Amino acid sequence: xxHKDVQGRRLNLRDALGATARAMPRLWLGASGVLxxxxxxxxxxxxxxxxxxxxxxxxxxxxxxxxxxVGALVRLSISTDARAARALGLGPLGFxxxxxxxxxxxxxLLCLIFLSMIVAMLGLVxxxxxxxxxxxVAAIQARxxxxxxxxxxxxxxxxxxxxxxLIPLLLVVRLSLFVPATLGRRQMVSLNSMGIAYGSFWQIxxxxxxxxxxSVAVAFLTGAGMMTGxxxxxxxxxxxxxxxxxxxxGFLGAAYRRLEYWSPEEGKA
Length: 269
Fold this sequence. Notes:
Elements: H1 13-30, H2 32-43, H3 55-77, H4 82-87, H5 100-133, H6 137-141, H7 151-175, H8 178-184, H9 193-196, H10 201-211, H11 213-223, H12 229-259, H13 264-268
């Protein structure tokens, strides 16, 4: 099936995070132009009053720049140097738009459809079990747990509810490598990305948690009332494009390079 033993692959989280940290300057430099442009596109309307008819155009431009930024960061993260990134289609300062960008959108839509189907099915299962258990819906809505029903029925419902939350989390982590895989394999990769992440769920989850620190910090400061108004929105945009996207995509690219087992020769077979 591949030149690597799929069953024996495991991601070393420390090595992947170290590679992410070392790659950050290269990611910032290679995608500097499109990252700045994306920040301006999203934060600009906070400073300049625009006509209502320009809103769709502005939103569309910001979305395209965001897609270009993601494409640039992924190309850099799965490459060892700037020359290899350019071979994957990286443009000057991160400005490029080729087939890989639409493929990323298509793969993301396929993953979202799959996850939506799973979440809907799990929701129906939880509702069905809750109906069979004949629990007091009004008591649940009022959070009067003592009047909901027998303790054992409530415990079963809690277990089922936790399962309904954990299964989507498992799938999201297993699917997270679809972004670097789509560019690395030069074809749209969606559900197949779960095979790449096989055996490294906890390591990928740990890396995503660690690299989510900027967003967590912004959410904490906002929740604590330390950031409000237009300034808070600007900080969110800057943190997203200057820190969060490079860190997350840098880690996913580092994980992909270590876990990928597919080769172009296999794709032609």
